[in-house]
From TrEMBL, chains A, B:
Keywords: ATP-binding, Kinase, Magnesium, Metal-binding, Nucleotide-binding, Thiamine biosynthesis, Transferase. It holds the Pfam family AIRS. Its EC number is 2.7.4.16. ATP binds at G130, D131, R158, S223. The keyword RNA-binding does not apply. It catalyses: thiamine phosphate + ATP = thiamine diphosphate + ADP. SUPFAM superfamilies: PurM C-terminal domain-like, PurM N-terminal domain-like. It comes from Calidifontibacter indicus. Mg(2+) 4 binds at D38, T52, D83. This is Thiamine-monophosphate kinase.
Length: 318, 318
């Protein structure tokens, strides 16, 4: 348990904060040098390292009324680990950057750290190091960079989808978006499990290496929405992706009690789901994956042949 | 040259911005998968990777009146590369995270990118990937995670300094702090070269592997000030460090014309210098390094035997 600590960062020192953070962090035998020096040193037995980075920003990716520090820690780890899984790899270690206004409480920082440590420990991921920076009040950013390895399989990129492949997902669609809508509407009691998933999405990370081993031709994780992320595979591979309303209906049905007519928007455009999206030759779809469409001639994402506009999150204006 | 682009991020799209950023980025043969997929994949011939992260925050680490986007890009790369050098290593690749309010101009983002790309190219460092996130207006954070290798030498940590070792620095002291003081005083014409160094510190990165090869017993880079960072070596090694006023006098002299009586404060406490600080057995100090003191019995940093309070930058209150 974290002792309550209502002090702000302005009332503590970097050194004191780090002293309470370091002992909680998980490690593993491949970590030759861990937290506390200029850099960490991590063994890479396969001779090649996967690397990715993803951030969460207060006021955009979370608000304190809806998410605890531990929720934020879990979520930002999951986002990064899903990106590693989306190449067919397994994460070995992360570095964490916290940029926080001096008005941030020490308790929040400790909760964040517990969330990061717990989420990493659950996947045998080491926290290798990090960086603390002060910022103007009201600013809080958590950035993680994750390192991983392929363990013998080839990296699965976005550009290998071929006409005739099937399109499949490793898990749910739209749950995170549906949970967010309940928070926004103040009706969280309609489906607390969706709200919980929005706060701490759980990614089925083993599906990534499974897909690689099975021969997936393209693979990524759904962070910005099925249509938008599907378009990324379509563009990179020079193909079209035709989603099937029939195949997607069960995903929408599961959300209808909670969000009614918004269920389809959640399924098609909901981000932060971290389900994996892949294309496979017809006969090799691994267990636990669900078919949602087909790779076709073309250059965009369609639903039963109909073009889909937008369909997800863009960070800026467009 | 960057075409002027006064549009803000609210008036562009993530995709459009990325399309202008990607072509500028340097790569190298070890990059098996670069920007544009879920993760990058980098060969690590030595079988172990160094990893570090460091950030710059608008309003704390820079203000737009004093630094261009390109200045910020150069500086944040240098900070990270100096951390790799401070283990005795060489940087191979970086990932970049930009968190920016929608009020940020496209032109600024492009300048930042040019600065990062130029600084990396100069050191044969690949930009492996990154992350763009929107943020509330007035927020801008640039985080870099750098990967590197040791190329056969052993990592030099902070905890190996032994009583009787000499203490040496690889380059200047206090230049960045002196430059900042001139900016704050509006007297930049007194020493434009110090102001330029504050905006774009140049680190003698080869000094890190040189020190490792020569047998340095402890090594780090001066990012928070000579006394504060020296204390980190002292604490980790369980020794004292006694700095010599006589040996430091030439460093202060060089700053006196510009900042007068503040010269000693710059030398002892000035951060963001990214000069390397090392301890060596007496007889092995490499060429180009300057002696500044001795490792002694004790537990803190002294100047001619006198205790030094504070002596540098703490991110928070303490």
């Amino acid at each position: 348990m974290i002792p309550p600590d209502g002090r702000t960062l302005a009332q503590t020192s970097e050194q004191e904060l780090l002293a309470s953070i370091f002992p909680v962090l998980p490690t593993r035998p491949e970590v030759l040098i861990g937290v506390g020096d200029d850099t960490a040193l991590l063994q890479v037995p396969s001779g090649a390292v996967l690397v990715t980075t993803d951030s969460m920003v207060l006021g955009r990716d979370w608000i304190d009324d809806w998410s605890t520090g531990a929720d934020v820690g879990h979520k930002v780890v999951t986002q990064n680990l899903a990106d590693i899984a989306a190449m067919g790899g397994v994460c070995t270690g992360v570095v964490v950057s916290l940029i926080a206004g001096r008005d941030t409480t020490v308790a929040w920082c400790r909760e964040l750290n517990e969330g990061i440590a717990d989420a990493c420990r659950a996947e045998n991921v080491a926290v290798l190091g990090g960086d603390l920076s002060s910022a103007p009040d009201d600013v809080r950013v958590v950035s993680i960079t994750a390192l991983g390895e392929l363990n013998g399989s080839s990296a699965v990129r976005r550009d290998g989808a071929r006409v005739g492949d099937v399109v499949a997902v490793s898990d749910s669609l739209g749950r995170s978006d549906a949970g967010l809508r309940l928070l926004q509407a103040g009706t969280t009691d309609r489906a607390p499990e969706l709200v919980a998933f929005h706060r701490r999405p759980v990614a089925r990370l083993a599906a990534g290496p499974d897909a690689a081993a099975a021969g997936a031709t393209a693979l990524m994780d759904i962070s910005d929405g099925l249509v938008r992320d599907g378009r990324r595979i379509a563009t990179a591979s020079g193909v079209g992706i035709d989603l099937s309303r029939e195949l997607l209906t069960p995903f929408a049905r599961r959300l209808e009690t909670a969000v009614g007519d918004d269920a389809w928007a959640c399924v098609l455009s909901g981000g932060e789901e971290h389900t994996l999206l892949a294309t496979f030759p017809d006969d090799v779809v691994p267990q636990g994956w669900s078919l949602v469409g087909r790779v076709v001639e073309g250059s965009d994402v369609t639903l039963d042949g109909q073009p889909q506009q937008g369909g997800g999150w863009d960070h800026f204006g467009g």
